[in-house]
Amino acid sequence: MSVQFIGMIGHRLSSETIAPVGPIFDRDYIVRFAQTHEAAGFDRLLVGHWSDQPDGFLVTALAGLSTQKIHFLLAHRPGFVSPTLAARKLATLEHLLDGRLAVHIITGGNNAEQRRDGDYLDHDQRYARTDAFLEVVRQTWTQSAPFDVNNAFYQVEQAYSAIRPLQQPHIPIYFGGSSDAAIAVAGKHADVFALWGESLAQTEETIHRVRAEAAKHQREIDFSVSFRPIIADTEAQAWEKAEEILHIATERADKVGGGYNIKPDSVGAQRLRETAALGRVVDKRLWTGIASLVGGGQNSTALVGTPEQVADALLDYYDLGVRNFLIRGFDPLNDAQDYGKALLPITREKVAQRDAQEKAS
């Protein structure tokens, strides 16, 4: 299928509008969440990475063994596991899930968070390390003979892995990051480049930059964009719902520590703040209310409207070359069910019609 929908799994129920519920590693919730997304028709589930949260490998394993068809996208941050070991861990997990795995490389754009795990490299050094990391990971996945590595970050002798990915030539690599250093690494290694939900103009600019960088290496890259759709039976109801979400999120932020006073320092966060500066609503229905509240610190822009209106907005990004949409709601489980009832099937139908028209012409 030419369009893919990715959800994002949590290890317990929580969001900007919902205080954390249940144990920190809620096995029942993880299973129910994965099965709900599979039943709703999602293609893949992202398992995120944070410096203070449960291990994503085990969250993915539990969710994967609880489902049959849905694929997974495991976020991994280079620098804390050697690349040869990471390659074997990922290949082993991929075998466990019968090939239903991709890896999302998150280099890290927050110095304070990196240092919680003992990483004191600066921004550009981290991306240089990611470049070296991915070189070794891909060698481990693909080389049939032992190999040596000796670069600024890694030294290994006679590295070899008996377990190889089921997917060929290797496990798909998703990649995030908006800085020049990130784009350079993406051009060499990414199969799918992931963006937060910016304006159409900003998204088109980034797509051109990434494609130009990939062309230097004779490569082509797919694209993913992330949104928090807010849908309702009527457009007016959807906008009312958005304002209520912002009201609840603001109250909750004030209760848990005075709001979001620290602006994240990543380039991606800076770009989302630039999007929010364009106005509360950009490109007809890209809503920046939560992005403004959190200072651009996460996937936080929403498309607001009826399922058909939001599907039409997604098609605007599809026309730019985006084939993957990471969507999650502010009421994660219930919103996933709602997306499966209307938004996903309507969008797929519109994409199929668009593709058929293009082929006919």
UniProtKB/TrEMBL annotation:
Gene3D superfamilies: Luciferase-like domain
Start and end residues of each Luciferase-like domain: 12-323
SUPFAM superfamilies, alphabetized: Bacterial luciferase-like (SSF51679)
Swiss-Prot/TrEMBL keywords: Flavoprotein, FMN, Monooxygenase, Oxidoreductase
Residues annotated as signal peptide: none
Protein's GO biological process: alkanesulfonate catabolic process
InterPro entries: Luciferase-like_dom, Luciferase-like_sf, SsuD_RutA_monooxygenase
GO molecular function annotations of the record: alkanesulfonate monooxygenase activity
Protein name in UniProt: LLM class flavin-dependent oxidoreductase
